[in-house]
Design goal:
The protein is mostly helical and 171 residues long. It has a single domain, classed as Orthogonal Bundle (Arc Repressor Mutant, subunit A), CATH 1.10.10.10. It has helices at 2-13, 20-38, 41-57, 65-83, 106-111, 116-124, 128-139, 144-151, 155-170. Helix 2 packs across helix 3 (41-57).
Amino acid sequence: MEDDLRAMGDERAAGNEPDAKAQEQQRAALTRFATRYLGNLDDAEDAVQEVFVKMLESDCEPRNLRAWSYRIARNVCLNRLRAKGRRRDADRLATGVDVPMEELGQLTRLMNREEGQQVLGALDDLSEAQREVLVLRYLDGLDRAEIATVLDVSVAVVKSRLYEGVSRMRR
């Protein structure tokens, strides 16, 4: 998928239309991401549509299209949550959302099994910052640098939150 996203970015930089397959894969990944923030598939699809519009209207040529698109998606989700009058830090990331099976990430499929309940319980015990980093890393498959870009923190902070979150989940 990352190669498809890079190809999509290369196509965009060359002034060509990105491959439809790459667009659909990115749309599915961003929809999963937005669904976890917003807790509702319909709201997530609307948010992802807004993300694509913002990406297409932007004059920015990102070095990392995947991290850039996740950052835009995160900002769109946070703005939508604020517009609804909900504080982001007061809400948990939605984890029990009904998403079509073909759109589920690896960790999400695990959560659908019996032992997934233990993972959910452990995620609930984490701080919001730790949970967000773990979700981006293990559900969305972003690397540390991409997570740092999405969250606008240093890679060292991402490493620390990952370590602390994983350590806490092991207890």
